[in-house]
Amino acid sequence: MILSRACNYGILASLYIAKEERTKTGYTSIRHLSEELNISFHFLTKILQTLTAEGILHSHKGPKGGVMLARNADEITILDLVYAIDGEDIFTECVLGLPGCGNEEPCPMHFQWAEVRENLKDMFEHKTLAETAGEVEEMKLRLSNFVRGEKQ
Amino acid sequence: MILSRACNYGILASLYIAKEERTKTGYTSIRHLSEELNISFHFLTKILQTLTAEGILHSHKGPKGGVMLARNADEITILDLVYAIDGEDIFTECVLGLPGCGNEEPCPMHFQWAEVRENLKDMFEHKTLAETAGEVEEMKLRLSNFVRGEKQ
DNA sequence: TTGATTTAAGATTAAAAGCTCTTTATAATC
DNA sequence: GATTATAAAGAGCTTTTAATCTTAAATCAA
Fold first, then answer.
1. DSSP code of A24?
2. Which candidate in B1, B38, B143, B151 is best for mutational testing of the A interface (most A CBs within 10 A)?
3. Are B86 and B4 spatial neighbours (Cβ–Cβ below 8 Å)?
4. The pTM is what?
5. Closest residue, by C-alpha, to the C1' of D4
6. E-assigned strands of A10-144?
7. A11 to B96: CB separation less than 8 angstroms, yes or no
8. Among A72, A76, A74, A88, which residue's Cα sits nearest to residue A120?
9. Are the C-beta atoms of residues A100 and B148 closer than 8 Å to each other?
């Protein structure tokens, strides 16, 4: 898998929050997110703690607490989430795992891989939460881990 | 990491074998491969067993034994190795990890990801061992896990 | 001010990936 | 035949990732 499971969950949850915030204000509880998306509550809590620490979300304890986007949804990209959770390694690592691979000491796939990798990065960078959450709503795209029919 | 470590090692070893076979015939011992590439002998043995079982390599026990390419080097692509070791999952999996994601029930990144993924697959498919091993030799590209100067 | 609700934090467990060790089977050479 | 070199096979250890459990801290509302 190209992204870690934590990163998958972090993206799905952030998209869900962005979608909610199109019509309501205030915090979204992690319990609610975990139920809607079918993600373990405690695991999701940890992931969202990371996003909070990275300044992408705000959190609030107590009743009516939860998390919300710390910036405008069109100022947060999927790339921001990937960086926050998985780091930037996937955009710098050698595809054959050679330490120190780069333009100076390239592995046999370095230049081709660098191109694909750049496309991947562009893809993540051009997807804002605002735009993507909009698509999710208009096109009724999936966000949850449920398979068709299994709950909603 | 996009490919497993086992897959990295399998590719590096196969390229080394292809390079050797440009000038010599017969088997290349796994011990030799593991020393040249700085890869654990037992681990590499297992990986190459898989490639042998998949019909990509031939093996031979006893003195002067080892492994050799089972087909002509221009008839083996890096994609063949990836399929044999990691399977085809990375070319079918959802980038957000949603089960059953596809054209019918797409996740919010499905179509963009499908494109990047196809580029990645093309990249692996167009790299034959013959061509790549040639480049390694002509351009003195790296194959081993050693960092510069550490043995060479 | 007490109780309920919620995130924070850290310890623990489970599963997967990566790696090592030992033994066995086979083949070549002397 | 005995010895040595080699791959095959499988058991088992280590590290990383994923997930769970427990307790603490903060906040709100009655």
1. -
2. B1
3. yes
4. 0.94
5. B63
6. 57-60, 66-69
7. yes
8. A88
9. yes
